[in-house]
User: Fold this.
Amino acid sequence: MIIINLLIAIYEVLISAAWTIIVIVSILLSPIVGKHLIDISEKLFNYFPEPKYIKRPKMYCGPFYLPYFLRKIASRNFNMACKLHDERYNAQELSRKQIDKEFLLDMLHITEFKGSRFNAYLFYYLVRYVIGLPSWYIIKFLKLLGFKI
Assistant:
């Protein structure tokens, strides 16, 4: 079972790396070529089988290119707060700063029942100053290209 999980993790890392390269190439190229590149890649990736013999819950903490086992560790206490944060980032109805502050407040509310305040502040600073900025502008750029997120 450990070997199967290891192979699944390697598979997910490779697929995530391929998606990351496709997104970066499409951003660097013109919007017309980038849109076609992503359309073609979505058709290609639909042929890759999703490992269905292991039922796994959806983990929301961490960027999409982070392997599942790392998202699982990150989502242990704050999965619902991360889900709300992702939905707010995708909608982009509020400012990024306000969305990140609401994320911190959601996590601090959760720490009243489980988790630690240190982890809540750590997640906040990672999202605010490391992971969130590129994700915000990638989502904004993909929306400009006409993708529904």
